[in-house]
């Protein structure tokens, strides 16, 4: 009996040692899964290291260290370059390379490079300071998380020369943000902003800029976060300058952290260890005190996005779009604001009557002035901007007026100076270019015409003068009625067909042109103008019970007009039948030429790529009702007789409600072209089309499918197109991507530009992708294309 008790005690001690030991043995591994068990700190298990699921029921994870005992599991360290990590990835402590993170296919996502033959890894330790340390056989430190901070430091941790805290993109987005904290070369602890995605420096230090040391002995050499939770800057002469408030809650009773938050504010937080409810993190102190006013550089957008206004609330910036503007990305309230009206001059003429001047008190955008009027009254300031076609905003203060152009930066609320902003907003009912009143140039032309006529005979003069007067009366007084909202699709230019007509036109739906995401397309004969051929799309049953949505969407599609969109000729909604009639495209789909025997030339393909980009720009930004296509792929790009790209099926995706989606996962689109955000249950924006366009662009370059079935991993050419495109770009092997095509090889500058645009478009982080307008500008060479990030170092969810 005693022997059995001894065995039980020994087994219990061994179990406790294995579960509570502060050491992690070589070969120990973790797998990214919903029920994965992390490594916990020793001895109190305050922290955990492992995979955090980004959202419930998703396949995306973050390799991180977090506070494990509090309800919200706050992250204090994370590996940014591998974010997000796909389900099934493995983290392992390796004898020669330290921590190794591999995806389910075995590809390396991250490693600490913490060892090697000369200093082989012995084990890793993880204590309750939150520091994960990899040690060699002689117990020396090979790597530690405290020396590789993300956006947070903990008590006993310091920021050394060369260390940098980088904010995340948003509260839930762990990509690189705009704000940085570090010790500058001249010995200051400074915060500054950088541009995303290129992350080049802005000369915009918004904290520490006024503390330049008078001599080298007072230069800052480190920033410490003591075990007593005091944050201090340590100077070269040994003196400490304490930044934390003198009275803070007891360290023994609270958890502490200091984080450079996504909004650019560096904050020291505490959290009670003994909590009956969830009190949340409390701020002990924040730096700077007013980030809205502290960021004031000549480059960059400021604390908020361009054209936005920063308002300080509880020492945190809150960003707002002014009247007449809206967020460019609705999912990012701290992002840029776009005007909801057309800007600029018309024929260089003042268009003051076409605009309203909205007044906003106590708001300023300093540093964007192109003209100052002094002295000036408030009324003169308003009129001066209204009548200047280059002016978008004017600021009135102290009998002076400052004129400004878009985009505006460093917007902030400032109640100390009696500011008044006048924002020019275009009226909604202004005349268009086709029916606007004549300009001064038009008047001068008419005067010249009349003068010439007066030199003719009296009789002819009378006739011409009469005609000229009539012309003047007509030009000056005609007011073409604005088109009334179409109450029914049949009231517009598109034609309403009966089902019988379309049965006859298609010979009983005999000649099938192709099958799409929403139905089958048939060839038809319908005399319309000079054309006789048409494409009749017979929609699936999912549209049968959506009369209102069908009519609304047909109206929207019918009002779209762009050379890179397939025109809608008519429709049919008779009983259960829903059909759309499009103009016929004689050269079929882009897929036929990319993946078939016939190959388009390089110049044809580049023009097709630009045409698709322009068509999507129109759908996203220039339509009266924004349209997200949701299924951009070569099979939905048709080619007319001159091989111009024409996007089809646009607008139909809006008819699909989520419960009508064909997939159980509520994901729209086609395998290989689906943006990763579909897998995250997050808000979908136009950036899903940008992602799909990026895939199509890489296909246009390489004439390859998204996944090449005949290839295996390790064969040299990656079977996944986006991965292979990155491999070729990073390895300087773009000639392999264009398969040594002679015309393309003579145009390698264009090849590189298109590849880089494609890689930007397929970035896993939607906020890194350009807008389609920006993509157009990069394709045309109007805007320089920065070097893209590795799109698959943090990509998952692609099919």
UniProtKB/TrEMBL annotation:
Pfam family, one: B_lectin
MF annotations from Gene Ontology: ATP binding; carbohydrate binding; protein serine/threonine kinase activity
Domain annotation Protein kinase: ranges: 507-790
Domain of life of the source: Eukaryota
Keyword Aminoacyl-tRNA synthetase: no
Binding of ATP, residues: 538
Keyword set, alphabetical order: ATP-binding, Disulfide bond, EGF-like domain, Glycoprotein, Kinase, Lectin, Membrane, Nucleotide-binding, Receptor, Serine/threonine-protein kinase, Signal, Transferase, Transmembrane, Transmembrane helix
Enzyme Commission designation: 2.7.11.1
InterPro entries cross-referenced by the UniProt entry: Bulb-type_lectin_dom (IPR001480), Bulb-type_lectin_dom_sf (IPR036426), G-type_lectin_kinases/EP1-like (IPR051343), Kinase-like_dom_sf (IPR011009), Prot_kinase_dom (IPR000719), Protein_kinase_ATP_BS (IPR017441), Ser/Thr_kinase_AS (IPR008271), SRK-like_kinase (IPR024171)
Signal sequence coordinates: 1-21
Subcellular location: Membrane
Domain spans labelled Bulb-type lectin: 27-147
PROSITE patterns: BULB_LECTIN, PROTEIN_KINASE_ATP, PROTEIN_KINASE_DOM, PROTEIN_KINASE_ST
One GO term describing the cellular component: membrane
Catalysed reactions, as listed in the record: L-threonyl-[protein] + ATP = O-phospho-L-threonyl-[protein] + ADP + H(+); L-seryl-[protein] + ATP = O-phospho-L-seryl-[protein] + ADP + H(+)
Protein's membrane topology: Single-pass type I membrane protein
Residue spans crossing the bilayer: 446-476
PANTHER family: G-TYPE LECTIN S-RECEPTOR-LIKE SERINE/THREONINE-PROTEIN KINASE SD2-5, G-TYPE LECTIN S-RECEPTOR-LIKE SERINE_THREONINE-PROTEIN KINASE RLK1
Family (UniProt): Belongs to the protein kinase superfamily. Ser/Thr protein kinase family.
Protein's UniProt name: Receptor-like serine/threonine-protein kinase
Species annotation: Salvia divinorum (Maria pastora)
């Amino acid at each position: 009996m005693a022997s059995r008790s001894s065995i039980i005690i020994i087994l219990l001690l061994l179990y406790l040692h294995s579960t509570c030991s502060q050491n992690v043995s070589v070969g120990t591994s973790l797998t990214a899964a919903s029920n994965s068990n992390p490594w916990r700190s020793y001895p109190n298990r305050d922290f955990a290291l492992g995979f955090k699921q980004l959202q419930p029921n998703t396949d995306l994870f973050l390799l991180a260290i977090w506070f494990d005992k509090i309800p919200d599991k706050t992250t204090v360290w994370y590996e940014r370059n591998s974010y997000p990590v796909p389900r099934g990835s493995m983290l392992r402590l390796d004898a020669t390379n330290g921590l190794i993170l591999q995806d389910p296919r075995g590809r390396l996502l991250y490693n600490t490079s913490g060892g090697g033959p000369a200093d082989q890894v012995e084990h890793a330790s993880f204590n309750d300071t939150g520091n994960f340390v990899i040690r060699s056989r002689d117990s020396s430190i090979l790597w530690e998380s405290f020396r590789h901070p993300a956006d947070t430091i903990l008590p006993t941790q310091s920021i050394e020369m060369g260390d940098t805290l980088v904010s995340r993109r948003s509260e839930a987005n762990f990509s690189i943000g705009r704000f940085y904290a570090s010790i500058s070369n001249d010995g200051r602890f400074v915060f500054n902003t950088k541009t995303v995605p290129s992350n080049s420096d802005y000369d915009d230090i918004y904290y520490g800029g006024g503390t330049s040391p008078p001599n080298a002995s007072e230069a800052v050499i480190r920033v410490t976060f003591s075990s007593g939770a005091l944050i201090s800057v340590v100077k070269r002469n040994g003196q400490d300058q304490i930044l934390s408030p003198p009275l803070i809650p007891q360290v023994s009773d609270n958890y502490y952290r200091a984080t450079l938050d996504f909004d650019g504010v560096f904050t020291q937080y505490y959290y009670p260890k003994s909590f009956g409810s969830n009190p949340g993190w409390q701020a002990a102190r924040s730096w700077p005190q007013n980030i809205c006013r502290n960021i004031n550089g000549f480059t960059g957008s400021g604390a908020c996005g361009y054209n936005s206004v920063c308002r300080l609330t509880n020492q945190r910036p809150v960003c707002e779009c002014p009247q007449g503007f809206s967020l460019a990305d609705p999912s990012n309230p701290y992002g840029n604001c776009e005007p909801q009206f057309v800007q600029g001059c018309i024929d260089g003429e003042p268009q003051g009557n076409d605009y309203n001047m909205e007044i906003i008190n106590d708001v300023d955008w300093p540093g964007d002035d192109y003209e100052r009027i002094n002295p000036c009254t408030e009324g003169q300031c308003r009129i001066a901007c209204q009548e200047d076609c280059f002016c978008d905003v004017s600021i009135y203060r102290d009998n002076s007026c400052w004129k400004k152009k878009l985009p505006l930066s460093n917007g902030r609320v400032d109640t100390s100076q009696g500011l008044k902003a006048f924002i020019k907003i275009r009226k909604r009912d202004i005349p268009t270019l086709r029916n606007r009143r004549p300009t001064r140039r038009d008047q001068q032309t008419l005067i010249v015409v009349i003068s010439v006529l007066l030199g003719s005979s009296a009789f002819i003069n009378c006739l011409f003068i009469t005609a000229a007067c009539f012309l003047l009366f007509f030009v000056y007084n005609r007011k073409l009625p604005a088109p009334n909202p179409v109450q029914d699709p049949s009231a517009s230019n598109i034609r309403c067909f009966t089902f019988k007509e379309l049965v006859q036109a298609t010979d009983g739906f005999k000649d099938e042109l192709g099958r799409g995401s929403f139905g089958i397309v048939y060839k038809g004969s319908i005399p319309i103008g000079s054309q006789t051929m048409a494409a009749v799309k017979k929609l699936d049953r999912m549209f049968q019970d959506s009369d209102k949505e069908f009519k609304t969407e047909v109206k929207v599609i019918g009002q779209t007009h762009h050379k890179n969109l397939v025109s809608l000729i008519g429709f049919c909604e008779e009983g259960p039948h829903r059909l759309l009639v499009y103009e016929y495209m004689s050269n079929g789909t882009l897929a036929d030429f990319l993946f078939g025997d016939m190959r388009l030339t390089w110049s044809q393909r580049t023009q097709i790529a630009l045409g698709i980009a322009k068509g999507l720009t129109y759908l996203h930004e220039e339509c009266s009702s924004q349209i997200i296509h949701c299924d951009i792929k070569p099979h939905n790009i048709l080619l007319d007789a001159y091989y111009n790209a024409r996007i089809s099926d646009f607008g139909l995706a809006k008819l699909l409600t989520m419960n009508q989606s064909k997939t159980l996962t509520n994901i729209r689109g086609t395998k290989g072209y689906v943006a990763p955000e579909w897998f995250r249950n997050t808000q979908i924006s136009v950036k899903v089309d940008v992602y799909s366009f990026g895939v199509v662009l890489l296909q246009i370059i390489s004439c390859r499918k998204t996944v090449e079935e005949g290839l295996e991993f390790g064969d040299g050419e990656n079977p996944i197109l986006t991965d292979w495109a990155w491999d070729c770009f990073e390895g300087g092997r773009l000639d392999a991507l264009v398969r040594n095509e002679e015309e393309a090889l003579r145009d390698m500058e264009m090849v590189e530009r298109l590849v880089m645009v494609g890689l930007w478009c397929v970035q896993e982080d939607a906020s890194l992708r350009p807008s389609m307008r920006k993509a157009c500008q990069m394709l045309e060479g109007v805007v320089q294309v920065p070097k893209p990030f590795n799109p698959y170092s943090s990509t998952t969810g692609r099919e």
